[in-house]
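Hello again, I could really use a second opinion on something today. My current little project is about how a certain protein chain folds up. You're getting the sequence in one-letter code plus the fold written as tokens. Here's the protein in full, and shout if anything looks odd to you:
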Amino acid sequence: MQVNKQTGLILFAAIILTACSGVPTRKEDTRSTPAPVIESHVVLPPSVVQPKRGGYLEGDSPGVDVPINLAAIPDAVPRVEPLHRFANTQYSALGKTYTPLISPGKFKERGVASWYGKKFHGKRTASGEIYDMYGMTAAHPILPVPSYARVTNLANKKSVVVRINDRGPFLRERIIDLSYAAAYKLGIVNDGSAEVVVEVESLAADNYVQPLGVTDSVVMTPLKSTTDSVVVTPLKSTTAPSASGEAAASGNVYLQLGAFRSQQGAESFLSRMSVEFEGSGKRVELYQKEDDMVRVHVGPYSTQDEARATAEKLEPRLGFKPLVKLH
């Protein structure tokens, strides 16, 4: 009787298992869920979502309105354009005097390129145009404004043609500042800088920029300025110091960083210096006297001694010692 009971239990369990195996299993829904619609102008390309540390100055990131088709943005197309009336005159910035090239001739140089982003986006360039970080433009210390140049990244051999419409860079031994779009196409956004070759077949606007052979040498044809009347020299203070050699603490003591014939060039340089001196507690501002030179000053300092001490500290960073000026 005990055996029959056990046999009955086994048969009952077998019936239950058979019944369960007969129930069809529920399959997972393999239909894909439609992706949310995202506006194209707010999607970050993969290479800029997580840029490497040091790729750009703090606060000067690519921003959030980065087009998704940066790689498809066409290069600048050289065309005949008259030179800007004021942006091609001799000027002084951070202790160096620059004489822009304005005559036909080949140009080639090798050095470090960097890029500038949203802190300058919408600001005035040396040409007076508004800077668009998603346009194919660049800033150069001496190439004509406007002109066109080919820039080649020596690490990956990528090459772009940009329109020069701004002045700079002036710090860290860089030779050209690219727009964000140009830097993206060259593959230097994340690193922030790269060794490049900047070359122009002819400085005449009606000749298309053609790439030259990449060499280690820098070839540059020295060109004369057509404006002999523009002479940039160290400027003397217009206010004599007191008998003690110290100006009154009236907020009139500044350091001079640059002097320009062009208001637009001075404003462009001021924008760059405002970024460099951000967080210092000092203002970077324009100052103009009767000689029509527009100067870029930083300050004010309470005394001339404080200004001189600051100039000493700035010299290694800027490459020159700023001049003490009294307003």
